[in-house]
């Protein structure tokens, strides 16, 4: 039977693009905000576009933070995409006008990983376009994908420092993939049932399709 994937609809994200891309992997895909469907699915995909604070407000209103937490605690796979990855961290720090010294807005995230999402320090922001990534050697998310393949990014904020390492020898350390735009930033994470990408696999051609297929293969 095909794996059942729910694309979680909490009012943010390219839902139909994500749905079509997931369907091309052979998964049975539903777009819904229903919490029971989201909890029961083989895999939960959490999209996200726009501001961290707005996404977290919508995600909490839909109960998405609790759903993600319950799934991860139960070892049930979750995949976050773009801001859907960012909200998995402790906090996001955003400023409407960083050049003018505006006061930053700090928003709490889901807290699945320690760390802060803040503005990229680069000559040109947002980071918009195609870029390579540097996955670890034992990656499953990027299995079968060559080092020259590029992925599509659209973001001004990212996690610039990885703060979490496994403190238990029975639990493998997270596998962190990096990219660079002005400075290194976290491009993807594989951590038990919780995986995420800063780039948009649904907009990344054949390489992105392979990333999604690799995730579905784990369900």
General description of the model:
The protein is an alpha/beta fold and 219 residues long. The chain has one domain (4-217): Class I glutamine amidotransferase (GATase) domain (Rossmann fold), CATH 3.40.50.880. It contains six helices and 13 strands. The chain has helices at 15-23, 35-40, 52-61, 64-73, 83-86, 205-216, and strands at 4-8, 28-32, 43-46, 78-81, 89-94, 105-108, 113-119, 127-131, 151-155, 157-159, 175-180, 184-191, 194-197. The chain has a seven-stranded mixed beta sheet with strand order 2-1-3-4-13-12-11, sandwiched between helices. It has a four-stranded mixed beta sheet with strand order 6-5-7-10, covered by helices on one side. A two-stranded antiparallel sheet has the order 8-9. It starts with a strand and ends with a helix. The mean pLDDT is 94.
Supply database-style keywords:
Rossmann fold; 219 residues; four-stranded mixed beta sheet; alpha/beta; globular; 6 helices
Q: From the 3D structure, determine the CATH topology.
A: Rossmann fold
- Uncertain runs are none
CATH architecture: 3-Layer(aba) Sandwich
The CATH C-level class name:
Alpha Beta
Average pLDDT figure: 94
Distance between the termini: 11 Å
CATH homology superfamily: Class I glutamine amidotransferase (GATase) domain
Helix content: 10-25%
Q: Which percent range describes the beta-strand content?
A: 25-35%
In this structure, how is the largest beta sheet organized? 7 strands, mixed
The main sheet orders its strands as 2-1-3-4-13-12-11
Inertia-based shape: globular
The number of domains:
1
Number of strands: 13
Number of helices: 6
Structural class: alpha/beta
CA gyration radius, whole angstroms: 16 Å
Keywords: Amino-acid biosynthesis, Cytoplasm, Glutamine amidotransferase, Glycosyltransferase, Histidine biosynthesis, Hydrolase, Lyase, Transferase
Pathway: Amino-acid biosynthesis; L-histidine biosynthesis; L-histidine from 5-phospho-alpha-D-ribose 1-diphosphate: step 5/9
GO biological process, one term: L-histidine biosynthetic process
Domain Glutamine amidotransferase: 6-215
